[in-house]
Structures are given as C-alpha cells and as structure tokens.
Design goal:
Elements (H helix, E strand, L loop, with lengths): L1 H21 L11 E6 L2 E13 L1 H4 E2 L3 H10 L6 E11 L4 E4 L14 H7 L9 E3 L5 H4 L15 E3 L2 H7 L2 H6 L5 H16 L10 E4 L2 E5 L8 E7 L2 E5 L7 H4 L6 E2 L5 H18 L2 E3 L8 E7 L2 E6 L7
Parallel strand pairs: 5-6, 6-7, 11-13
Antiparallel strand pairs: 1-2, 2-4, 3-12, 4-5, 8-9, 9-10, 10-11, 13-14, 14-15
Amino acid sequence: MKLFSRAFACALLASAFAAAQAEAPPAKHQAPGWYRMKLGSFEITALNDGTVALPVDKLLTNIKPATLEQLLARSYLKAPVETSVNGYLVNTGSKLVLIDAGAAGLFGPTLGKLVANLKASGYQPEQVDEVYITHMHPDHVGGLATADGKPVFPNATVRADTREGGFWLDKATMDKAPADAKGFFQGAMASLNPYVAAGKLKPFDGATDLVPGIRAVPTHGHTPGHTIYVVESQGEKLVIWGDLMHVAAVQFALPATTIQFDTDSKAAAPQRIRNFADAAKGGYYVAVAHISFPGIGRLRADGKAYAWVPANYSSAP
C-alpha cells in the first residue's frame, strides 16, 4: 500500500510539473542583434536595427508578378517579406567606424534597435570616431540623432558623398519633390542637422581613402551619392554594400530587378550587376543592409544568377 501511494504521489507531481511547463507564457524576446568576426587585424561587428515587413510585390519593378511569386516561394517566402536593417561597426585598432546608423523612429516601430545592440556588443556610442553613410534614406541615417535633435554619436565625424548632402539636405530640392517623398528629405535633415551645426559633417567626393583600411567607392544610382565601403586588412576584404540590393531571394536570381526606392533605377541596376560579378570573381566578403542578419557572406556565380553563401559562424572571433 505504501509503495502504491509513493508511486501515485510521484505520478501526480510529474503531471503537475509537466502542466506547469506547458503553461509557461512565451518570452517574446529575441537575442541581442550583434555578430562579430575578424577581418585580418580588424574586428567587424554586425549590428541589427530590427526587421521591417516590405511589400516587395508592390515595390519591386521590371519583374512579372508570377516570376516574383515563384522566386519568393523558392526561398519559402511570400510578400510582405520581413527584411533586416543592418549596420556595421569596424574597429581598425586606431579608429572605431560605424557604417550606417539604422532608422531610430523614422521607419516604423519595429526598427530602432541599433544603438541598444551596439551597447550589448560591448561598445558605447561615445566611442565611435567616425560614421560613414552609404546614403541618406531614413533607415540608414535615422539613428544619428535623438528625437529631440541631439547627436547620438557626440564624438563622431559623419562622412557621406557630397552628392548625398547636396540632394537630401537641400530644401529647394525637397520643395520640388513629390509629396510622398518629402518625408525622406525631412528625415535626412533632422538626422544630419546636429552634425552640420557642430561642424562634424565632412563630405567627400567620389572614390576616397577615409582611414587606413577603409575607402569609399561611388555606386551612384539608388541615390545620387550612394556609396559602398571597401574594408581591407592583412589581405582580407569586406565590401559593405548599403542598398546596392534589397531582396536576396529575387535579386540574386535576377540582378536587373529594381525597386521603387531607387532615385535612378537605370543607373542602380548596372551598379548591382557589376558588383555582383566582382564579388563572385574576387571571393571576398560582402555585408548587406537588407539581407537577413548578420548579412555577411560571399557570392558564387550560378549561370547568370548568383548564390548567397553566408559567412561560416565562429563562436571565437
């Protein structure tokens, strides 16, 4: 009788424990969005600003709807596609350089996590020496300033192609823009003005060596001054693409596919095609703002298309 009672009590406890486990509410939180790798003697830290659902079926151009649907389905996706927004921190040993600053509050409530993830990765905004901007769309510059107009990176110099500031920071150009585009100008102005006022916006003109190991390369088209950044150390190379592309499942298969965000799609598509081919030939790393976090990998040519090969994960960079 005692043996039966003990077994019955154990069964009741096990049942209660299982029920308690099953009733635990979902945690509903993701791990901090940062990823680190070595590039020669440099340290690269990918920083995720969050994800945003893009209605790619409405945004992508010069592609048939059936083809778009088929390409998305091949990657087990459908519109809208939840799309990463990534920035990249480069520690050269002498300079701490952030490339693109995320959206803050300028692109919806699911973004704005870049600074929190920078802190989680072990750095502080005050430590950033320079911020390089690929272009001045809100999801790349919004994180530069606080909501009350103060610089998030108070000790940093901000660098961007002179054509970017000449376009997005020009009130006359904004006044001529369509009503649905004016917010892009306003976001750029609000984000950059604290640095302009402090004399810390220093434009460059086209191909420019910025600090040892990092150079700017013009890829104008997506915006008037869109720029990619080439990072090299001890024979290793990483090219940070910004918005050279947006939808991996589609544009790696059909590189000529463009997007409505392009200021000049006829110029943007050849830049993408040229850089895809160069990356596949060179075998170097690329880092992409809108490829699933951390957005770092290599390209392999596959006929007229390309295959994306994510960087192999290392727990000890």
